[in-house]
Amino acid sequence: MDVVAEVLEVSGVTGTIGARIEAGGTWALLNDDYPGAALHAITAGSAWLTRSGHEPLELLAGDVVLLAAGIPHTLGDDPRSLPVVCDPVALAEARRTGAAIRLGDGVPRTRAVTIQYDCDHTARTQLLFTLPELIHVRADAGAAGFDDTVRMLGRELADPQIASTAVLNSLVDVVMIQVLRAWLSTRPAEQRGTWLGMLDDPIVRNALEHLHADPARPWTTASLATAIAVSRATLSRRFPAAVGQSPGAYLTQWRMDLAAARLRRTRQSVESIAAAVGYQSVPAFSRAFTRSHGAAPGRYRSSATER
Q: Considering only Cβ atoms within 10 Å of each terminal Cβ, which end of the chain, N or C, has fewer?
């Protein structure tokens, strides 16, 4: 059971190419209008990233930086360069066609790709929103093949071939996973008390794999502890410390996220969805779902279809 992949899928994390930048001389670009997380991959040259209240960060070729949702920041040739205001029509057209946005007053020496990641904001089991404000992965410190992926991304955008759209759709997912791998291998302390905290504790990770593999099973903390061969006291102590919730609270949350995904994406009956997530009583399922998502299952499905 690949728990991380399943949470990414159920919470609807998707990436789209935001912009391709070619810049030289004096230049700076303000980024403050993206709805989700923003990832910048420097494919050639270098750039400075600045954000309020923090020291400027130099990014070199092959570096990738991932910023949490809603963090205004500027990319430029120098921390003191003033950002330009891009023509929104030209920017939208460049994003649609994959053409590069030209910045600065000199020969382009810096090339960068921006990817925007967003998700279903109603999902309560989140990975995207548990990340820190900024993750910086240097070209020489990433997961195996990380630099190859960044170079491939740049080449595919600069010289599109047949099925480039399919290649890019896959690469944006790969880049996200490789950034997470590189960060998780070096910063376990920052994960404590979040969903990602389970990755640093083999007992908790094992428990989550059991819950995800069979969410309809009537798990209790005691039965889950037995299944993974630890004491109930151990699981009761370590699970909340790693994840921030008890096993029972997490299971209820995950069941509701699974149910919401099925309501949005399938035409399964409410009765079959309820049974699939461990509820033999439809009224009990409806009450739990309404508490979680603020609407009864039928109304939630209708509103999701209308959007």
A: C
| Three-class secondary structure of residue 85 per DSSP | coil
CATH number listed for the domain at residues 3-186:
2.60.120.10
Query: 98 is written with which tokens?
Result: 């994959």
CA atoms of 307 and 300, how far apart (whole Å): 11
**Rounded alpha-carbon distances, angstroms, from residue 139 to 21, 150, 203:** 19, 9, 32
Q: Select from 1.20.1250.20, 3.30.310.80, 1.20.120.790, 1.10.10.60 the CATH code of 195-306.
A: 1.10.10.60
Tell me the mean pLDDT in the region 185-193: 67
Q: CA end-to-end span of the chain, whole Å? A: 32
281-291 burial code (b ≥16 CB/10 A, e <16): eeeebbebbee
Cα–Cα distances (Å) from 31 to 21, 36, 70, 107, 271, in that order, read 13, 12, 10, 23, 45
Interatomic CA distance for residues 307 and 303, integer angstroms = 6
Confidence check: pLDDT of 188 > 70: no
| pTM as predicted | 0.84
Residue 284 has pLDDT above 70, yes or no: yes
Extents of the domains making up the chain = 3-186, 195-306
